[in-house]
Fold these 2 entries.
Entry 1:
Amino acid sequence: MASMISKKMAVRGKNAVEKLCEVIPGGVNSPARSFPDVEQTPMVVDFAHEDMIFDVDGKPFLDFCCSWGALILGHVHMGVVEAVTKRLSRGSSFGISTEIEEKIARKLVSLVDSVEKVRFVNSGTEATMSAARLARGATGRDLIVKFTGNYHGHADFFLVQAGSGVMSLNATSSSAGVPDDIVKHTACLPYNDVEALRSFFKERGKEVAAVIVEPVAGNMGVIPGDQEFIQALREETLKNGALLIFDEVITGFRVGLKGAQGLYGITPDLTCFGKVIGGGFPVAAFGGRADVMDHLAPLGQVYQAGTLSGNPVAMEAGYETLKHIEKPGFYDELDRKTKSLVVPVRRVIKELNLAACIQRRGSMFTLFFGKKRVRNMEDAKQLDTALFSKYFSFMYERGIYVPPSQFEACFISSVHTQEHLDFTRDAMIEFLRSL
Ligand SMILES: Cc1ncc(COP(=O)(O)O)c(C=O)c1O
């Protein structure tokens, strides 16, 4: 009887995917959700609770994706639910300022030293796109420098693939539909390569409006920037009158209360936030030096706007989240939990002398297959994605959901239980021992 029910139920997920595909391209509103890199039917979620999600077949999964890092307090946090519900009953959107916007802006300014003023938007893509426009408007220059394998959302001028190294800077787009005329204003350099950076700036430094970087890269899996590399970014931008933009859409309030800039002790001119600051709602922001931010309309000439920007329901969720994560010991406990999983796995990789590694910053980590260390896109290209796919299935079949690509980060929330972390650690080790 039980197996009949589960067989019948398992059909629902497949049907749901098929129905979604009929009316939504690929059945998804963001490509990674279609599981393009693994051999499993894409998940369709019914509901979630704390560190677990349940698919439409009723199958539970321990969630290590956490809405791609957004849910640092886990699913259905009661403080967030209450704040949002209260706001909803008083109106959900006005297109007019509300006091909660001042409250959350002030909190952000008080927590992150480099941020003197901030503007809220609806997605990380909007935050990076707006920060780049602002940098161009404030400096009067066009050129944006980014790094291979860093992802800054899907604005045209960020969808750029590098050639190899400094010599082939004629960037080509990594998406159809992006004109070459647009990507010619984006230079793509290798990540963690100080020499390439310095030689580029020697030649073209005075053309650069801004350098944008993920200080801890999360979009080729977790690859922390080297201290000297991040330091060199600050030096070269200052020397050449360019702005430094930290894309902390993932790392902001994730790797620590002051984000990656707190870890490195480097002050960017502008910072982009997203994910955690929305508490599971569509919120992102960009902020930084007041003299730069004041170039934005209505004070300045750089136009930027949004019907739902600073939406009060989403602001309440974000504010509630920030209130919780600033409590003393919050990040220490998150670190402790993450280490309880990562450290034993790393030990086993060493003991078995596997071509693998587990890289971590704060509560984000990636288990890489095929390399003992991953420092940049060149390394990432050599990873064993077929083995990752097997690993994904191994975990998935045990009810553990890790992001469905070798080039993504796993995230731990404050409500992941030690029992669930131990179960996941043991599954990871079992897979590694089976190799
Ligand atoms: C570092 C970084 N910047 C920007 C973005 C774009 O954010 P969104 O997906 O909210 O547009 C992402 C998305 O994952 C990201 O990881």
Entry 2:
Amino acid sequence: MGIGMNRVDGKVALVTGGARGIGGETARQLVAAGAKVVMTDLLQAEGEALAAELNEAGANALFLTHDVTSESDWERAVAETTRQFGPLDILVNNAGVWSRGIIEETLVDEFDKLCAVNLKGVFLGTKYAIGAMKSRPADADSASIVNLSSTAGLVGSATSAVYSMTKGGVRLFTKSTAIEVRARGYNIRCNSVHPGATESPMQDDILATSNMSPDEIKAFKQTRNLLGRYGEPIDIAKAILFLASNDSAFMTGSEMVVDGGYTAR
Ligand SMILES: NC(=O)c1ccc[n+]([C@@H]2O[C@H](COP(=O)([O-])OP(=O)(O)OC[C@H]3O[C@@H](n4cnc5c(N)ncnc54)[C@H](O)[C@@H]3O)[C@@H](O)[C@H]2O)c1
């Protein structure tokens, strides 16, 4: 990749679920590429520690405690981002929750929680981001909304149908957002990212509840996709950074699959 690719110099980004995992690495990459980044999460201690680390090289990161299912939290987070760093250029709707369960045994409370974080959270984030981004001039770089879907938003699964339902919803909400904002004349792009299994605390939970032995887990990680390993958060963060940056200026309503080839077969 040439010098200057995927730069986001001076841009203002908000990354939800930014305390750890894919969101934490995305915040790190955005700061490294020149952005000012607000990381939001429920996990205050982890988020503040990451912000402090990122700020060692300059005051470009801020952590805010934020529940993506709360409308008033979104109002506050977007207002605080604008106040601290300026108008919002980039939103990464990354916060998400996963749960294992067959349909017959899934409790309505569990269903509601998955929908609240994975669907309502993305809806609310998009709602407040559009408000903050819509007055951007037509000749400026587009604002960019990046939504974390999953391979589970592309193909089905025997162990997490409700999660797949939410991630499929994120996929089409992304496309509708892309169309709607253009219909209204806003200079905003919106794309989804579809990671395959990626090393993170969420993935640790998935494997811990799988009934596989450590040896079986190792073999599973090597055979699950074409490239013989699980993704690392940086694999996904690089794709998010690309979609956030102006190097993806001609992409909107698209779905970027970053899965080691999992959905190719
Ligand atoms: N890791 C994978 O294999 C994988 C694969 C495909 C898609 N994804 C998606 O990528 C995104 C990030 O996943 P990850 O693996 O880094 O997970 P993770 O659990 O490690 O991180 C998710 C973060 O979201 C935060 N969060 C959860 N509920 C929240 C809420 N209500 N408000 C604010 N923050 C909240 C958590 O505290 C956590 O820090 C998720 O949307 C996930 O569904 C992950």
